[in-house]
Amino acid sequence: MGFHSLFLCTILIPFISFGTSTHESQNFTSRSNDLKALNGFSSCLESTILDWNSSTSPDYCTWSGVTCDALPHVGTRVVRLELGSTRLSGKICESLAGLDQLRVLNLSYNFFTASLPENLFHLQNLEVMDFSNNHFEGPVSTAICSSFNRLRVFKLSNNFFSGEIPENLGNCSSLQHLSINGNDLSRSLPESIFQLQNLNELYLQNNKLSGTLSEEVGKLSNLVEFDISNNDFFGFLPNIFGGLTRLKVFNVGSNRFTATLEDLSHCRNLSMLGLSKNFHNEEMPQGQNLEFSNLKVFALGNSQIKGSIPNWLSGCKMLQMLDLSWNHLTGSIPSWIGKFNNLYYLDLSNNSFTGNIPQSFGNLKGLHVMDLKHNSLSGPIPWELSGMTMLEILDLSHNKLSGEIPQSLIELSFLSSFDVSHNELHGEIPTKGQFDTFPTTSFEGNKGLYRHSTSGFMPSPPDETRAQPHHQKLEIIGFPFWFGALAGFLITIAICFASDGHHPTKCHQAN
Ligand SMILES: *[C@@H]1O[C@H](CO)[C@@H](O)[C@H](O)[C@H]1NC(C)=O
Ligand SMILES: *[C@@H]1O[C@H](CO)[C@@H](O)[C@H](O)[C@H]1NC(C)=O
Ligand SMILES: *[C@@H]1O[C@H](CO)[C@@H](O)[C@H](O)[C@H]1NC(C)=O
Ligand SMILES: *[C@@H]1O[C@H](CO)[C@@H](O)[C@H](O)[C@H]1NC(C)=O
Ligand SMILES: *[C@@H]1O[C@H](CO)[C@@H](O)[C@H](O)[C@H]1NC(C)=O
Ligand SMILES: *[C@@H]1O[C@H](CO)[C@@H](O)[C@H](O)[C@H]1NC(C)=O
User: Fold this and answer.
1) Cβ atoms of residues 291 and 265 within 8 Å
2) Where is the chain membrane-spanning (predicted)?
3) Residue 303 and residue 48: Cα distance in Å, rounded?
4) Distances (CA, A) of 373 to 247, 279, 360, 420, 486
């Protein structure tokens, strides 16, 4: 060590230690409380956090996930504990509540079990609390919002919480984001929730909540995302939309609502409209005043809806996913659907559509799935469909299509599932491209279709030789795929499949 450094050290060391010791002595008690709380927390874990070790790293403010801050009048204290996705297991002990200056508590994407200690709800400085994607269970505390005046973000989603949503939730008056989706919560929604004037995002989907939906929802004028799908709500969907002009995501799918839907005209900014699996014999709204120029997802499947594809839909130029399957829709398929440049999923199956497949569908360059099965479509399969260069699944089965299978379809190099069974097609089944990989069942039920073979022309084998039951392969475009696709661009499917995977059944609509 040179003279200069030695000199500096001699001068500075007392200075530094003086500063620290004054600080330590004045706030020794509160600081040691933080240490005690952290050690208590880690002693209840079944796993260890490597660098949380007082002997090797005495300053706990440097431990992973721990952030300290110098607070006026309080001193340097732990303000953030962020241990998301760190594979922790065990339970959370009461000692954690000793971190009384905590602002952010994030323990999401771990394997925590048991119930949350009641005293955590006294941490009155908390602004963000994220317990999502764990194995927590038990009822949600009835005192949940007794002390949380500053709580902005509250996530309990994808756990095993049960019982009802406590009335007291309405007292978290600063709340902007609330997600309790993916639990076992039941009974009706407390009215108090509609007092949360700052609420932007409310996720309650995938529970067992029931009752009617109060028209008080319409008072949440800051609401941008609202998802109560996959519950047991019923009754008339009240006209709540006049007050919800900022709404972008509205998903009430898989409940038992009835509605007129014309009221939606107020929500011009909607990007996701999920109404599937509700209703009973209602008419498709045809209103001239409906206009959703930002709509990306429109899901109104499995709802026994009557009528035809409405004209207002042609204004939804941003549409990426359109699901009108399993209804009683009639009329022809409008050719303007071919103008939806961003469309990647189109399901119009199981309706009573008549008429031709529009040639304009060849313009759907981004389409991955086209399902038109179980309708009454007639006319030829347009050769232009070879323009759907990204297409992976094409199902035209159970229609009245005639003519030949266009040779141009061999250009669809991503096509992995193709079905034209049970139509009135004739002629030679194309060879080359993906066509050599499709099973016989894809072509059955068309008396005039045959395969080319080297020993001359052979009729296609009779139906009895089918390799597999017909619908087995179609499971890919059943609900798991549907939910996956939906969640994909709304939220992030990556979270589900990449980061943990220990919630396989609850992963459909993560957030
Ligand atoms: C802390 O680190 C020391 C030295 O590496 C080690 O002996 C001790 O077991 C560690 N303590 C804990 C609780 O991991
Ligand atoms: C130490 O903490 C107490 C309260 O816990 C506070 O009143 C005091 O101002 C703090 N001192 C410093 C130097 O931050
Ligand atoms: C909590 O941490 C995870 C990463 O582990 C992150 O994805 C998530 O956004 C965090 N939660 C909040 C509310 O910031
Ligand atoms: C909410 O807080 C108010 C006063 O702050 C109190 O009167 C009321 O009882 C609380 N409501 C619930 C359900 O705890
Ligand atoms: C509609 O969305 C756009 C873009 O996200 C936003 O700028 C605008 O403020 C929104 N309008 C309303 C009424 O919320
Ligand atoms: C068609 O939809 C009806 C309900 O409208 C359903 O019961 C039936 O199973 C569906 N059929 C097919 C082949 O998907």
Assistant:
1) yes
2) 479-498
3) 51
4) 33, 22, 19, 9, 21
Instruction: Give phi and psi for 494, each to the nearest 5.
Output: -55, -40
Lowest mean per-residue pLDDT among 21-30, 222-231, 271-280: 21-30
Q: Across residues 471-479, what is the average pLDDT?
A: 30
Q: What is the mean pLDDT of residues 66-84?
A: 94
- What one-letter code names the amino acid at 79? V
Residue 381: DSSP 8-state: P
Other beta carbons less than 10 A from residue 437's beta carbon: 11
Nearest to 77 by CA among 104, 53, 40, 107: 104
pLDDT greater than 90 at residue 268: no
Strands (E), 156-279: 160-163, 177-179, 184-187, 201-203, 208-211, 225-227, 232-236, 249-251, 256-258, 272-274
What average pLDDT does this structure show over 3-26? 43
Ligand 3 pocket test target in 64, 81, 86, 108 with most atoms within 8 Å of CB: 108
**Could you tell me the CA-to-CA distances from 484 to 415, 493, 497, 504 in Å, in that order?**
19, 7, 10, 12
State the fold for domain 140-459.
3.80.10
Of 95, 104, 123, the residue nearest 39 (C-alpha): 95
Take atom 2 of ligand 3 and give the residue whose Cα is closest: 84
pLDDT number for residue 148: 86
How far is CA 127 from its chain centroid?
Answer: 24
Residue spans per domain, the chain: 140-459
- The contacts of residue 407 (CB under 8 Å, 6+ apart) are 383, 430
Residue nearest to atom 14 of ligand 1 (CA): 53
**Range name among 25-39, 294-308, 330-344, 468-482 with the lowest pLDDT average:** 468-482
Q: What integer best gives the mean pLDDT of the chain?
A: 85
Does any ligand 1 atom lie closer than 6 A to the CB of residue 58? no
State the Cα–Cα distance between residues 14 and 276, nearest whole angstrom: 71
Nearest CA to ligand 1 atom 4: 56
> Is residue 177 exposed (0-12), middle (13-18) or buried (19+ Cβ within 10 Å)?
buried
Q: Provide the token pair at 39.
A: 């050690």
Residues 364-395: tens digit of each pLDDT: 999 999 999 999 999 999 999 999 999 999 99
Question: Among all ligands shown, which has an atom nearest to the Cα of 23?
Answer: 2
State the average pLDDT over residues 106-123: 95
